[in-house]
Amino acid sequence: MKDTLVKALVDEWTAIDGLLTALPPADWAKPTALPGWSVQDVVSHIVGGELGLAGQQPPVTKKSFAHVRNDIGTINEYWVDWLRAESPDEVHARFRSATTQRAQVLQDMTSEDFDAPSWTPAGQGTYGRFMRIRLFDCWMHEQDIREAVGHQGNESGPSAEISLDEITAALGYIVGKRAAAPAGASVTFHLTGPVERALHVLVDGRAKVVDSLPGPATVTLVLTSSLFARLCGGRTPVGERVAEIHFDGDRELGERVAHALPFTI
């Protein structure tokens, strides 16, 4: 698991680096789906994340950030704000430096290191789970950049597959808690591609992801894996994209589930 995850994370950084290399300076200033963040700000956020994992502290400012809802968001803004004075080339160089150093650290770690208990943005877990969340974050931000500059790509393969694993871990909470699906209900997400999957959630005492359902799903949501990821990441308003989802079964429950999909902090 450790070797697979580290390779996927390093490959993801390589994919982002290649994307950034092809961007003209003007594209770095384009707004993304993230409130107040340009393409350069997204790259700065990735840099800040890796510097933080390397033990550095963000430069604290007295500014307030209206769209921030938690302490993690505030720390993210500190890193981004710090790097706004730098040029795209300078931020790109920082990205390469930070990810190269982190890649070496990760490659030198053992499987035991990855299995060790660790804080994660999703609560207490293992260092390996933290790095899976990190891969999900980086891949989502690659897609933020691609969307902003109009260059689709890397929507399938290891980064997308592992990112969907991370999203899948949240589906019980989404269906059971946020969408308040009733006892006995079941929901299937049929992802039609670029990553093809059938994800099942059963409300049996507590909503949980299961390998299969005992019968037909109460509702099946049919959509692309790309749209599924963008909705779960809160990158696009559900109301503006719900027409792209096909509901088979209890549409009222299906729409509740769709509107409950955004879960990232």
Topology:
Elements: H1 2-21, H2 39-53, H3 71-83, H4 88-108, H5 111-115, E1 117-120, E2 123-126, H6 127-149, H7 158-168, H8 171-178, E3 186-192, E4 196-204, E5 206-210, E6 219-223, H9 225-232, H10 238-241, E7 246-249, H11 251-260
Parallel strand pairs: 3-6
Antiparallel strand pairs: 1-2, 3-4, 4-5, 6-7
Helix pairs in contact: 1-4, 1-6, 2-3, 2-4, 2-6, 6-7
GO molecular function, one term: metal ion binding
Domain MDMPI C-terminal: 161-255
Domain Mycothiol-dependent maleylpyruvate isomerase metal-binding: 11-146
How much helicity do the residues have? Answer: 40-55%
- SS field, number of helical segments: 11
Q: Which strand order do you get reading across the main beta sheet?
A: 5-4-3-6-7
* CATH architect. name of the largest domain: Up-down Bundle
The run of helices and strands is HHHHHEEHHHEEEEHHEH
Instruction: Classify the beta-strand content into a percent band.
Output: 5-15%
Q: Which residues form runs of ≥5 with pLDDT under 50?
A: none
The CATH topology of the largest domain is given as Four Helix Bundle (Hemerythrin (Met), subunit A)
The tally of strands reads: 7
Biggest sheet, in brief?
Answer: 5 strands, mixed
CATH top level class name of the largest domain: Mainly Alpha
Overall geometry comes to globular
Helix-strand category: alpha+beta
Distance between the termini: 26 Å
Q: Report the average pLDDT across residues.
A: 94
GO molecular function: metal ion binding
